[in-house]
Amino acid sequence: MANQLFARKPIKLILEEMAGENRLRRVLGPVTLSSLGIGAIIGTGIFVLTGVAAHDKTGPALMLSYVVAGVTCIFAALCYAEFAAMVPVAGSAYTYAYATLGELFAWIIGWDLILEYAVGSATVAHGWSHYFQNFIGLFGMHIPAVLRSAPFDYDPHTGVLAPNGHIVDLPAVVVALGVTVILVKGIKESANFNTAMVILKLAIVLFVIFAGIPHVNPANWRPFAPFGMGGISFFGHTLMGQTGKGGEPLGMMAGAATIFFAYIGFDSVSTHAEEAKNPQRDVPIGILSSLLICTVLYIAVSAVITGMVPYDKIDIDAPIPSAFASVGMPWAQFLISLGALAGITSVLLVLMLSQPRVMLAMARDGLVPREFFSAVHEKFRTPWKSSMLTGGFVALLGGFLPLRILAELVNIGTLLAFVIVCGAVLILRKTHPELPRPFRCPMVPVVPVLGILSCLVLMFSLPAENWWRLVIWLLIGFVIYFGYGRHHSVMRRLQP
Fold first, then answer.
1. Are 92 and 358 in contact (CB under 8 A)?
2. CA end-to-end span of the chain
3. Are strands 242-243 and 237-240 parallel, antiparallel or unpaired?
4. DSSP 8-state class, residue 28
5. Which one of 72, 149, 208, 307 is least enclosed by Cβ atoms within 10 Å?
6. Angstrom distance (rounded) from CA 204 to CA 333
7. How many angstroms separate the CA atoms of 94 and 105, rounded?
8. Strands 242-243 and 232-234
9. d(Cα 345, Cα 272) in Å, to the nearest integer?
């Protein structure tokens, strides 16, 4: 049994599996892949988290929080790029872990990616619903109150779920199902739709930056770090920096852990390696270019918003439209709300696009039912059954669970995936130095080690309850693996 748990999947076998009827169509170039990365990253971070983090945790030092989170992601991105160029198949970090760390670690990270993509999608669907209701409110239209949000709300201080009189978050359900239809239709159609959304939201983000610069008052940047530059904690105990009324860490580093959600998605580019025209070149370009572009834009927007409005006066629900209204530009609210809708829609599309491809890779290995999750549509060449299941799951979570519970699950799962990928690069350089690497992560072992350490610092700076939720999620995954996956594993049949 132990041999199977740590059995590594030969890279030669991984590449051979791309042949045959279950192959995905290679239609994505570097521009489209970069667009998918930008589509996944820019959205919730700029339009929602900027206000919350600046108001509650960092003040103007939010600019440095984005730098810290961005640098952490760059370390992980360089490791992702090396693997994606070596093993250009669906599955992302799951496939990389299988080739280097063995089946059990592959299952852990595959199950972890479900947490990232599916639960992250539900979180984004909530954000879309909030902005959609604000947008139609500009025209005097409103959704019935009972259909505006999930039927329960969560109080983080008491840990209690309380009914709020609502029935379902109907817009979140509708957008999840609508995106599912686009995803089933085809990767090319999905990518084209995403590109249109990306162009629109980039135009809006650039408008925010350049239209806001003349209204920046440098006095609003003082004090630059009202909560300090710290915020590092360990299982809920603050080690460096201030502590809030609820016991949560405050400061620039705490802000970096909070806004890390804003960067979730760049790794989704690697899940589409099997659909890239020239994955050895195009996937690394897509990963790194999308991450660098978004980091620069995040820093610029946070500088503008905290310069336009004192940090303690920022509207945490709609920080950007409110900032422009405060300087006599209320007409900008329409443009910004439209851009926010486009931005959040493209994030939702890319996250939901990535989830079925991870399940496809796991199904090829027999860890989940092959007949269902590896089924590729004869005409559209998409994993249509798992796309429909993902859409239904996201709609269910987005419609009935409160935003706080969903959002807090995602950051820690993504950071764990990054730790494993960085570690896998170190292992594969030792165990298989002879393998061709079209893209090589620079400064190994320095970059992977820094990636592991920086991700762990942010993981420990999250509230302690996130660790318990991660443990529960992993235990559920172990039940499925030992109950089904281990017995149906392809590697088990190949072992002597």
1. yes
2. 12
3. unpaired
4. B
5. 307
6. 11
7. 8
8. unpaired
9. 19
- The arithmetic mean of pLDDT across residues 126-136, rounded, is 83
User: What value does the CA radius of gyration of the chain take, rounded to a whole number of Å?
Assistant: 22
Residue 335 and residue 370: Cα distance in Å, rounded? 45
Helix (H) or strand (E) holding 240: strand 237-240
State whether residue 152 is helix, strand or coil. Answer: strand
Six token digits for residue 378: 């004869």
Which helix H or strand E contains 347, and what residues bound it?
helix 332-364
Domains and CATH numbers, the chain: 2-494 (1.20.1740.10)
Alpha carbon dihedral 134, 34, 275, 477, in 10-degree steps, equals: -60
CB 418 within 8 A of CB 265: no
H-helix or E-strand spanning residue 154 = strand 152-155
User: Residue 408's pLDDT is what?
Assistant: 62
- Which residues on neighbouring strands pair with residue 209, listed in sequence order? none
Cross-strand pairs, 250: 242
- Of the candidates 414, 425, 433, the one whose C-alpha atom is nearest the C-alpha of residue 354 is 414
List the beta strands (DSSP E) in 246-292.
Answer: 249-250
Contact residues for 120 (Cβ-Cβ < 8 A; gap 6+): 261, 264, 265, 351, 410, 414
Give the Cα separation of 339 and 418 in Å (integer): 30
Q: How far is CA 56 from CA 223, 227, 241, 245, 340, in A?
A: 14, 9, 14, 11, 22
Q: What is the pLDDT of residues 53-99, one digit of tens each?
A: 888 889 999 999 999 999 998 998 888 888 777 776 656 678 777 87
Phi, psi of 370 (to 5 degrees): -65, -40
Neighbours of 76 (CB within 10 A): 31
State yes or no: pLDDT of 126 exceeds 90. Answer: no
Q: At a CB cut-off of 8 Å and minimum separation 6, what does 407 contact? A: 123, 261
CB 439 within 8 A of CB 82: yes
- At 373-411, the pLDDT tens digits run 888 777 777 788 888 999 999 999 888 877 666 766 677
Amino acid at 157: H
Count Cβ atoms below 10 Å from residue 166 Cβ, excluding itself. Answer: 18
